[in-house]
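seq:
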Amino acid sequence: MSRRFSIVLFLGTLAVALIGAAVPAPAAAQEGLHAEATLAFRAGRFAAAYGRFARAADAGHAPSARIALLMFEHGRALFGSDWAASADQQRRWNALAVNAARERLVTADVSGRE
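struct:
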């Protein structure tokens, strides 16, 4: 009985975490994380910056997703470190970056800019 309760509790906690991860954070929170990440990056605290960019990207912030992907993909060569990102995170971050780029193209096309 105790083991069954533990499994149910674990699955319930996992479900709450997954549901929470799918809900974008408010724009102000995303921008705040991005600003903190940028400050850490400029100070040369790359691991801290990556963690903040990744959190902002997970919250739905496209500019942070672009930077997190760059840091993930080129971490060893550019920063001397490897950082982790799940395949699911990589897919979501890439989708955010691609959708933001498409929006910029559509906006530029509509306004007549090239």
